[in-house]
Amino acid sequence: MIRKAFKMYLNPRCAKTYEERHQKLWPEMKEVIRSHGGHNYSIFLDEDTNVLYGYVEVESEEKWQEIAKTPINKKWWDYMAPLMRVNADNSPVQDDLRNVFYLS
Amino acid sequence: MIRKAFKMYLNPRCAKTYEERHQKLWPEMKEVIRSHGGHNYSIFLDEDTNVLYGYVEVESEEKWQEIAKTPINKKWWDYMAPLMRVNADNSPVQDDLRNVFYLS
């Protein structure tokens, strides 16, 4: 299992809506995450900076990246785009973090 | 299991040393983490900002906090203090992040 961590950037005053939408994450999105090998997925908010930190364990990087090509994920990006810093295709701007320590 | 995430602050030009020391983490420190209910512990470095992100699953918050009172952990703090932003007792300055999403 690969442990991934990455940053995303929430717009000001969007924390409540972001959290509410994730609490009601579409069942089809949950299914896509699982069928693409994503496990133990958490997102944390840094309330000082509005930076979001994702942590997810994935079976393979390639399989995980395939999520981006699914219609349901594109629909989710469009839905979330007003709340976040996004790229031209509405995907969230995402910066990977480097693992420097692990203890099982 | 409680999923905790927190920020710590690395000093400039200390990434290599920080990582090397964690790769050689003292067996006594590993033992203390495990005996205080810590599991699946990762630390990630944000190379843009020198911020460290800890992610750890703990059995109880109280048990986890007890680590701070152990002599070996104090020794570890003293050893790591030159590399990090620390409090008066050499504990690393640590800011908790708020969980906003989880999918098993």
From TrEMBL, chains A, B:
<dbReference type="InterPro" id="IPR011008">
    <property type="entry name" value="Dimeric_a/b-barrel"/>
</dbReference>
<keyword id="KW-0119">Carbohydrate metabolism</keyword>
<keyword id="KW-0684">Rhamnose metabolism</keyword>
<dbReference type="Pfam" id="PF05336">
    <property type="entry name" value="rhaM"/>
</dbReference>
<dbReference type="GO" id="GO:0005737">
    <property type="term" value="C:cytoplasm"/>
</dbReference>
<dbReference type="InterPro" id="IPR008000">
    <property type="entry name" value="Rham/fucose_mutarotase"/>
</dbReference>
<protein>
    <recommendedName>
        <fullName>L-rhamnose mutarotase</fullName>
        <ecNumber>5.1.3.32</ecNumber>
    </recommendedName>
</protein>
<dbReference type="InterPro" id="IPR013448">
    <property type="entry name" value="L-rhamnose_mutarotase"/>
</dbReference>
<dbReference type="GO" id="GO:0019301">
    <property type="term" value="P:rhamnose catabolic process"/>
</dbReference>
<dbReference type="GO" id="GO:0062192">
    <property type="term" value="F:L-rhamnose mutarotase activity"/>
</dbReference>
<keyword id="KW-0963">Cytoplasm</keyword>
<keyword id="KW-0413">Isomerase</keyword>
